[in-house]
Amino acid sequence: MSHMPGVAEFTHAPAYAQPNSAAAIGDVFQIAGSSSKVLIDAACIAALAHDADPCIAMAGQVGSQVKMRVGNSWLIASVRSLALDRQEKGVIIADIDFLGEGDEEKLTGRIYRFRRGVTRYPAPGTEIFPVSSTDMQQIYAADDRPHVQIGTVYPTADTRAALYVDSMLGKHFALLGSTGTGKSTSAALILHRICDLSPEGHIVMIDPHGEYGAAFTQNGAVFDVGNLALPYWLMNFEEHCEVFVTSQGSDRTVDCDILAKCLLAARQKNRLAESIGRLTVDSPIPYLLSDLTNILQNEMGKLDKGTGALPYMRLKTKIDEIKADPRYSFMFSGMLVADTMQEFLAKIFRLPSGGKPISIIDVSAMPSDITSVVVSVLSRLVFDYAIWARDEQQRPILLVCEEAHRYIPSTTSGSGQAVRRILERIAKEGRKYGVSLGLITQRPSDLAEGVLSQCGTIISMRLNNDRDQAFVKAAMPEGARGFLDSIPALRNREAIICGEGVAVPIRVALDNLEEERRPASGDPSFTELWRQSGGEADILDRTITRWRSQGR
Prior knowledge:
20% strand, 552 residues, disordered N terminus, elongated, 3 domains, P-loop_NTPase, Rossmann fold, alpha/beta, 11-stranded mixed beta sheet
């Protein structure tokens, strides 16, 4: 290796006199594992700033990449922070994070066969060079694994960013971003690309705002209160308690015990129960709600019961109330008594998919007090199906949860604990059974602790809140820390992606989606809409009718 100039004579080195894309721009100053320091010549960076290649023009700036030769390999590192050297004029000290290494092609010096991780670190004094667009294409070139292209790698103009589908889904993923950063459109883009790649897939998406139905009319099935027909008897005991038990404290324990006894008796009345040896209160066996209330009534009349009549009355009143309320008819209708479990699972899990691999479950029109139970039942069905189908041909299922902080909150008290428990369990164990979890949220700091760190791929759009940024940093792998500092500075529809789904951490400008494939989540234009008037009486009339009939 040729003699490198020392720090004192650094700026006067002849090697840097005529900067071009192939000339060195500085050298390594300190090596310390993942983060190390390099010295960069400010004059070189200034000269390269007008280069036609956008990658070389960005050389030495925060978020750019640099390369250095070690033996027969090129090491690639990203620049995390810059500071001016106080002793030596014109020298910049930069912190770098190593991303990975690639082999050097003998004749051209180009990088090929790039891979994550570093086997040999450079010695202090090693020259560093800017990374060109051709290098970037080699670094980010998708290998033979199945992948989807979702955008362009920043700062290049044409290097495509690829997500490796198997790695991303195999270890769960999270899509994060503040409101208005294009999160819904990005989620739709990724899911559309996956659906195009795997038309026979099985994706279940929980949509709390009813915005994705419009985006997946061609390649998905949309279920809402009108056509979901979720049978109430599919609920397990814990979910029954969330719906039927209204009391708190010690009364709740008493009510739950009574409900368990009566629910088991009601399930035993079904003919199916005779063929099953060990029937439990959780078994998905159909039963009649009227049977349940009759059993409660009979038990209440018995003299040997240990409690007064009040717990029985509380349960019976609540069940009758739900039966009579038309808002709950999508789940507690008398029409849902037949054993429709097979048809229901086939419809929701897209088995077979018939070219429409995604089912959107629109829970926006459901009564808010039952939404978490519906999400809990659907998530648990996905997980239970995967467990009991282990000996069959595998049909992995992806469960995507929009507004995930609602269902996996960091608080362990209050209602909605059933859904929190099942989603946490899927996050921890789903991978073994072929269940993948996709979490979309604008408040990662409100998510239950540990769930975000279970996500192998994190796609982060702009986050404005400091607490959220700190949370994401804690969950991200070490080498991506430099990228994370740019999270508050991302533009709309830009994302930092790191983890299993990508070869190395990347910043991506996401593709535009065709109009008909976009979710209905655009921001209203106040100035435009506030110039329009006319037809208000009809709007109010139709709105109030829908409001009163609790339908859309």
